[in-house]
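User: I'm writing a tutorial on reading structure tokens. Could you give me a worked example: one chain, its sequence, then its tokens, then a sentence or two explaining what the tokens reveal?
Assistant: Sure. Here is the example chain.
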Amino acid sequence: MSTMNSTMYLYSVQERYADAFAKNFTIVVLAVTILSINGVFVLTFFRSSIFYSDPRYILYIHLVLNDMLMVFISVILFMMAYVWQNVPLPFCVILLIIASTTHKNTPLTLAGMAVERYVAICKPLHHHQICTVRRTYILISLIWGVGVLPGLSDLILLSIVRPLSIFSTATSCGASILYSTPYHEVQSRFMNGLYSSVVWVILVFTYCQVLIAARRATNDKSSAKKAQNTILLHGAQLLLCMLSYITAVIDKMFVPLIPVDRARLTFFNYLLTNILPRLLTPLIYGVRDKHFYNHMKGLFSCRLFIVKVEAIKQ
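And here are its predicted structure tokens:
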């Protein structure tokens, strides 16, 4: 009986290690894929100076860079849950603030991109005066300023409800573990609802205004139609990004139904609501834009030609 128990325990440990390795391997592969694809868009932007003076592309590349940072930090936090159980709390708080900020920045950037399209179609004569490069960078600074507020409020609440000595301790690094008070739950719901409502109001308003402009237009209906489709795409992107808001809801709904596979359900829920949307949204928008796509294709076709010429010379 003792031999059988030890064998079963060894098998259970091996199974847990294999499961943990499979999850971390999957996450790392997806993260490398996302960072590589988005890195191509970033390289195209910085190698083509024509994009530097266009607020539309500046906001787009900010969206891509923000999502790259979010995926990087998210994967680090995921892996730390397995390999580093006692994380110094100040370091953990910094990672959580960055993760929270980048998470909030995505819908705010989509709202900014929708407003830019609204100005371009509904106020074309004033577009160059309103949407300048300088104001675009000011908007990006405001996005980061507004996006960091929920993370800072979590930290302030933690310092109020917990003794300050907690900052000299170590803990498992996770928002659900560190911010586990009822006050944090209320604050999280309020912030998520506020941010989502503001962004949706902006998207609906800009879409309706562009739709009206498209119907009134006589000469440039194609541009208005493209702007209308672009804002619709922003709405679809926002829906994908907002999947992360319902991660906890999905866990509460499905985990009790299959308690044995709780860890796997939570993992697939994390992939579906946090990782995969960051793979799809920049890719769809970047490839859909013909101007950006042509520059990206030209950049790599040029590199391929250079490689062929060097190979022939050798």
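What the tokens reveal: The chain has a mean pLDDT of 76. The two ends are 71 Å apart (CA to CA).
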